[in-house]
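RECORD TYPE: protein structure
NAME: Chromosome partition protein
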Amino acid sequence: MEERYNFLSTQLEDVKAARKDLLGVVADVDARILQVFNDAFVDVEREFRGVFTALFPGGEGRLRLTEPDDMLTTGIEVEARPPGKKITRLSLLSGGEKALTAVAMLVAIFRARPSPFYIMDEVEAALDDVNLRRLLSLFEQLREQSQIIIITHQKPTMEVADALYGVTMQNDGITAVISQRMRGQQVDQLVTNSS
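PREDICTED:
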């Protein structure tokens, strides 16, 4: 009986030591998660303020933690106040303002944590010419460090491209890919030459 007791006591001590080690690992992982999240949040929030101001001159945008006292479960709220408006809730913005705010968030993330390339699908489709030009100037800055692939129907976006790739369906149902280096060429020339 004593032998069994000693065996179980040893096992219990092993389990307690393993539990203590695991709790230490969990605490280390939680601390690392908090540090990485906080660093990323601070960087993205800073970039979002700048990008939002560039896209909405005279406006103000910021990111806010919903539960700053509980960083492991907090959410992030986007506050956006376009120029001349008092609202900050995204649900009250127009479609174009929502689209531009979403793109501002993307660009802020891109700038805070750069990547070798980005792919965007018609992110500028809902924008008017003035807002499109502002966005294109941000794309020009982004492409200094990264490659950008943009799916678009907007002629101004095509005009700032280094290369264009078009996909078209021929009369016989066969898909054709057209490519063209762009720097210094007009989009009108490309369209007429490819027809």
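COMMENT: The domain at 1-113 is CATH 3.40.50.300 (Rossmann fold).
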